[in-house]
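The instructor's notes for this session suggest beginning with a concrete chain rather than abstract definitions. Hand out the sequence below and ask the class to guess, before any prediction is shown, which regions might be ordered.
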Amino acid sequence: MLTEAVDMKKLNALQDWVSDLTKMRSSLGTVITMKILHHADTPAELRALSRASEAVKKRMLVALDVIGKSRLIKLTMQLSDAALTLIGAILTGVFALIGLFWNAVFSVLKVAILKATGSLAVRSAAKLKPAAITTSEACQ
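After discussion, reveal the predicted structure:
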């Protein structure tokens, strides 16, 4: 019944808008949020200003006055992209180190197991003296 009476796309957009305002109000306070609200012309700008307010916190009004709305939005987007790139690079390095560590651990364990079972001497002797296969043996 409610879906017939109300356009759900518009309702979801309104919920997103209220969510952005709530985030901004929680990080800045009601008075500063109301002062910043008149800078947002579209819901997308409100969302961007909300993200910027989480990063800049109490200096949001000063940042808006000094560098302007569009530059502040671009700056916070560039910083968030740079932060994601940095996090990705750090995680890649961490996983590479974990892989190297486990490779070293398993190599040491393999050598220890082979020494304990005595098959290391047999394997190294086989590597040093490969069996000679003649053409007559290979054809059979």
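Then share the key points. Helices lie at 2-5, 8-28, 30-37, 43-56, 60-67, 69-117, 119-128, 135-139. Residues 69-117 form the longest helix (49 residues).
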